């Protein structure tokens, strides 16, 4: 049986008629650049990712280059400043940094997740560090709460390379009470995660038994006889314990200075709010002092929130989650044909919520001009063309469906690949992995060098009709282009990154694989 690594022919054929129709529409329109196809796609993609702005540009590398360049133009960064970046990435992430005369500071990946090891970041931060650039490599969410904390603590920009992860979600994990590692919950359900429920219930009971003074005062004012609505105390939603909750239309009432902001429960309130909002909750926050000194106004705000969103039009729990590409200050996206959302040529985009950054990037990618024949920056021509925008707009509609199919293939791989020479990366929840690639890692065994074993597996699979690709055979810091750089990248000691370059092999994964093809891949791998 033949299983190509990726058949772009088949991927395009899935929506071929609609794609041809979109291209024809543009061809017949006589308008090929900076028109309404760009406008529509940018709007739709910004909505999809969950940001205010999307700026289309020529490709994914440019998208990343423009983010750093715009920060330089806005005076946020200066040439020579440092950017923390994973060493295990496609080289474009690093090219975008060096292109702007910034200094990449390479961080090893975790051996099991293959993503940036957040425990190594803090020691790499210096007075010149201006940003952390994370890469959601292979389609796996690389964001962690620790990274969020570091950005806050050191006032760093967070930039996402989302070239491989369109459609992926980030769910901040529950803070471990005793330091244990917890994985993110199953999202999109507004009930407790069953895995955490017993522990959450224990904590909620403890909190109910030991209310703070402000909680007690507010609770007395909120009980049903007083306010006319049934409010609950310490109500568990997904992985959180809400101070107070009105369930009918999902109003969460949180007291800052309450239990959840105590030391070992430190929570990023903004992230918590965003996360709850993604489940259709509206979060009202009050300080203890407001409760003590202006209880009347607190109660009236709560009442009005409850009555306003009591209207039946309130679309609660629509499941709008936090996507990668909307977590940080800005994100670069690639629509290279082989990506999960691929154009039929080169294309890319930046997403951000920052209006100044968005305006600078839009100008930079258009010769540096904001107004015709007036040039604010020395920019370049790096625009998304109308045909690609129209095609992307068609494919965007099917992206979530396509991702589901990838996740089904991946689930079969995880459940059935059992060859002891092969290690699979940590299995994430589907919300956190859009499976752009499915990397398998060859183990070090006996005397054979791991690179040789990996190459032997590649050749063996090819002989059985299974196409595989190495991502990536030479680590960026070992590339010739960086051999002479003053920052001495090749001298860096990055053993895990180098190991992965020898041991990684990506097996076929795409939305148009048949069940027989998936089974064949597994059978061949297990018989190696
Ligand atoms: C594809 C890719 C890019 C570059 O995108 P292009 O559109 O090919 O320029 C950047 N970063 C990562 C991680 C990628 O996979």
Fold and architecture overview:
With 528 residues, the chain is of the alpha/beta class. The chain has 18 helices and 16 strands. A seven-stranded mixed β-sheet has the order 1-11-10-5-4-2-3, with helices on both faces. Strand 12 (369-371) and strand 13 (374-375) form a beta hairpin. Bound molecules: pyridoxal-5'-phosphate. The site of pyridoxal-5'-phosphate has 15 residues, from helix 4 and helix 5.
Secondary structure: elements and pairs:
Blueprint: H1 8-14, H2 16-29, H3 36-49, E1 53-57, H4 60-73, E2 82-86, H5 91-99, E3 103-107, E4 129-135, H6 145-153, E5 157-161, H7 197-209, H8 213-222, H9 224-227, E6 232-237, E7 240-246, E8 251-256, H10 269-278, E9 282-287, H11 288-293, H12 295-308, E10 330-334, E11 348-352, H13 355-364, E12 369-371, E13 374-375, H14 386-397, H15 399-416, E14 422-423, E15 438-442, H16 450-463, H17 495-503, E16 504-507, H18 515-526
Parallel strand pairs: 2-3, 2-4, 4-5, 5-10, 8-9
Antiparallel strand pairs: 1-11, 6-7, 7-8, 10-11, 12-13, 14-15, 15-16
Helix pairs in contact: 2-14, 3-14, 4-5, 4-13, 15-18, 16-17
């Amino acid at each position: 049986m033949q299983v190509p690594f990726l058949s772009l022919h088949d991927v395009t054929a899935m929506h071929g008629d609609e794609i041809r129709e979109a291209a024809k529409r543009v061809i017949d329109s006589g308008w090929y650049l900076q028109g309404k196809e760009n406008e529509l796609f940018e709007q739709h993609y910004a909505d999809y990712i969950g940001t205010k702005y999307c700026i289309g540009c020529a490709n994914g590398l440019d998208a990343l280059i423009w983010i750093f360049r715009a920060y330089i133009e806005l005076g946020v960064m200066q040439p020579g400043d440092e950017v923390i970046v994973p060493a295990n990435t496609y080289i474009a992430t690093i090219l975008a940094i060096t292109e702007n005369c910034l200094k990449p500071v390479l961080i090893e990946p975790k051996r099991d997740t293959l993503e940036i090891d957040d425990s190594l970041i803090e020691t790499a931060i210096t007075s010149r560090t201006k940003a952390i650039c994370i890469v959601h490599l292979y389609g796996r969410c690389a964001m962690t709460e620790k990274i969020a904390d570091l950005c806050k603590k050191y006032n760093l920009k967070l930039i996402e390379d989302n070239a491989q992860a369109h459609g992926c979600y980030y769910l901040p994990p529950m803070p471990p009470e005793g330091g244990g590692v917890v994985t993110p919950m199953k999202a999109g359900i507004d009930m407790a995660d069953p895995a955490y429920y017993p522990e959450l219930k224990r904590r909620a009971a403890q909190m109910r038994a030991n209310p703070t003074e402000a909680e007690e005062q507010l609770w007395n004012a909120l009980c049903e006889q007083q306010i006319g609505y049934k409010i609950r105390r310490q109500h568990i939603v997904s992985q959180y314990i809400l101070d107070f909750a009105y369930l009918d239309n999902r109003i969460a009432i949180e007291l800052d200075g309450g239990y959840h902001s105590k030391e070992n429960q430190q929570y990023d309130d903004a992230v918590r709010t965003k996360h709850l909002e993604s489940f259709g909750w509206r979060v009202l926050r009050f300080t203890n002092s407001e409760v003590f000194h202006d209880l009347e106004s607190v109660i009236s705000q709560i009442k009005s929130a409850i009555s306003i969103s009591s209207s039946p039009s309130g679309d609660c729990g629509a499941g709008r989650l936090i996507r990668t590409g909307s977590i940080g200050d800005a994100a670069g996206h690639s629509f290279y044909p082989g990506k999960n959302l691929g154009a039929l040529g080169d294309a890319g985009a930046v997403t951000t919520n920052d209006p100044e950054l968005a305006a600078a990037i839009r100008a930079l990618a258009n010769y540096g001009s904001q107004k015709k024949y007036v040039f604010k920056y020395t920019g370049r021509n790096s625009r998304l063309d109308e045909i690609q925008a129209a095609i992307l707009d068609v494919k965007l509609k099917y992206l979530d469906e396509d991702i589901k199919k990838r996740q089904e293939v991946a689930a079969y791989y995880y459940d059935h690949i059992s060859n002891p020479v092969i290690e699979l990366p940590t299995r994430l929840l589907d919300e956190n992995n859009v499976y752009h690639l499915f990397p398998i890692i060859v183990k070090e065994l006996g005397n054979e060098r791991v690179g040789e074993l990996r190459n032997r597996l590649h050749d063996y699979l090819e002989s059985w009709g299974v196409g595989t690709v190495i991502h990536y055979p030479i680590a960026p810091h070992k590339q010739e282009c960086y051999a002479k750089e003053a920052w001495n990248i090749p001298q860096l000691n990055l053993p895990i990154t180098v190991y992965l370059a020898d041991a990684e092999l990506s097996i076929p994964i795409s939305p148009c694989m048949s069940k027989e093809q998936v089974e064949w891949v597994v059978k061949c791998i297990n018989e190696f």
